[in-house]
Structures are given as structure tokens and as C-alpha cells.
Amino acid sequence: MGIIISGTKLAATRKETLRQAIVEAKLKYDRVPRLAVILVGNDVGSISYVKGKEKAALEVGINITTYHYDDSITEKELEDKIISLNHDNTVDGILVQLPLPKHIKQDKIIDLISPNKDVDGFHPYNVASLYLKHEGILPCTPKGVIALLDSKNISIEGKRAVVVGRSNIVGMPLAKMLLDRNATVTICHSKTKDLKEITKEADILIACLGKAKFITGNMVKDGVTVIDVGINRDKETNKLCGDVDFDSVYPHAAYITKVPGGVGPMTICCLLENTYIAYLNQFKRN
Ligand code: GUN
Question: Residue 52 contacts by C-beta under 8 Å, 6 or more apart in sequence?
Fold first, then answer.
């Protein structure tokens, strides 16, 4: 039977380390890191994600302010808010909760965030930095996945890594990070033929396609490490579930994460760490 990698436990340990670092840094810099979150509309999922970020930020001593706007906010008003936060020296990180309403161009808003304050790592400058191996801010979920692997000393070099999903937020950057750690990486997606033949080759399998319980036991080999990035609702039970059918995959896995309690807490943890990095960088620049 496999070992369950707990994102909840790893995040708790890392958050405690971060909390102590922030106590020390406050003595030196005379203020704590500050994160500004922009939330538009009343999507239940987005509100709940933002609440989770607020709670975690307070735990580690990060000052977090959420600007919650009605759906009716114009693109121009949102742009003006970002510009003002970019200029505010007391703000270290800016996060725009996605998705935004249809009348607002998401790319235009993300592009406007100062790359130095883009703690999500979504700005084209930070995306390019990852691909060119320049210093920049790494996206939180892929960073959290690598931290989960490292926490169990799971070696990546020379391994066959299969990433199922090709989003700009998770699949693509994670594939690049695994490649940079010398894995042999295959990216699969909805048009991939013979998907099962490919996933069965994986030493490390990352499920990030957004389909409930899509990866089943007959799609993996024995001894595989499985990281489940999905957050879905099971249609039958209405419970939270991942992209992996845990019950059928678990007997084959050497290591596996669960949903909830796996990647989710690590995404938030890495957001807080990115905010702290952006805060330190702000003092280094000034
Ligand atoms: N919506 C869903 N996931 C994310 C995320 O990681 N960052 C932001 N900003 N919005 C999201």
C-alpha cells in the first residue's frame, strides 16, 4: 500500500517556518508583508478560496486586504485599482481571483499587475522567467506539487513524468519545472490518443485536467507516484474529489495525495511564501 503525502501537514510545517521568518523580518523592516486580493462578483467557489487565503495569511502574520467588487465593476475601474496598488509601496503582493466576469479581459488585467507583485506568477514576465530559467515568481500550485515530491525525497531526475492537463496555471509550468529537474516529461490532454498507454508508463503522474475521478487504477503502473491537483464535486455524493479515483489507484501507488488535504493547502502555502519573497525583494530594490 502506498504512502499518503499530506499537503495539510507539509503546509502547516512550512507556514510555521514562514511565521517565524516574518516575526524576524518585522524587527528589521518595521512592517509585515501585505497582500492585496481582488475579488469580483459572488461566485461561491471564489469567495470560499479567498476566505481560505485570508485565514492562512493571518496565521503567518501577513496583512491581507480583500477588495470585493460587484459584478458591475468596469474594466477601467479595475485597471485603475491595479495601477494604484502597483504604486502603493505598502503592498507587496497583488492577487486577482480568477475567473473574472466575461466583460473584463482577464489577460489585460493580469498583464497590468507589476511583475514584482504578481504573487500568482501569472504575469507574462514571470511565465517567461520560468521558461528562460531567469529569477521570477513561480506559480503557486506547480511550486506546491514540487514541494510535495521533495518532502518525501521522491527523486525526479531521470523519471518518466506524465502531466495530464495543459493549463497555463498548472500543467504547462509544472511540466517545465519537472523538465528542469531532469524528468522525461509527457504532457497529455483531451485529444491525446491511447492515454492509458502513456499514463501506465508514468513513474510520476500528475492529474490536473479538471475531471472528477478521471484517472483510474487500470491507468497506472505499480509503484507510481500520483499527485492529484483536481478539485471537483462528485456528482453522486456531492463531496469534494480530485481528478484521481483514489480508491482504485491507491493500491498501485508508492506515494499518492488525497483531495482534500493534498495539493490545495500547498497552493495557499506557496502563495504566502511568494508574498514573503516579494516583500523581501521590495526592500532589496529600495
Ligand atoms: N482561481 C482558481 N485558482 C486560482 C489561483 O491559483 N489564483 C487565482 N488568482 N485565481 C484562481
Answer: 268
What atom in ligand 1 is closest to the CA of residue 141?
6
The per-residue pLDDT for 117 is 98
Under 8 Å between Cβ of 156 and 184? no
C-beta of 97 in contact with ligand 1 (< 6 A):
yes
**82 is written with which cell numbers?**
491595479
Which pLDDT score, from 0 to 100, does residue 286 have? 73
Same fold, 29-126 and 140-264: yes
Whether cis (ω within 30° of 0) applies to the bond prior to 33 is no
109-137 tens-digit pLDDT: 999 999 999 999 999 999 999 999 999 99
Please tell me which residue in 15, 81, 92, 97 is annotated as part of the active site.
97
Beta bridge partners of 15: none
Run of H or E residues at 284: helix 263-285
Domain ranges of the chain: 29-126, 140-264
Is the shortest distance between the CB of 163 and ligand 1 below 6 Å? no
- Dist CA 264 CA 80 (whole Å): 31
Q: CB burial class (10 A; 0-12, 13-18, 19+) of residue 67?
A: middle
Q: Which of 87, 88, 73 is nearest to 38 (CA)?
A: 73
Give the count of beta carbons closer than 10 Å to the beta carbon of residue 167.
15
Contact 55, 265 (CB under 8 A): no
- CATH number of the domain at 29-126, please? 3.40.50.10860
CATH architecture observed for domain 140-264: 3-Layer(aba) Sandwich (3.40)
Low-confidence stretches of the chain (pLDDT < 70) are none
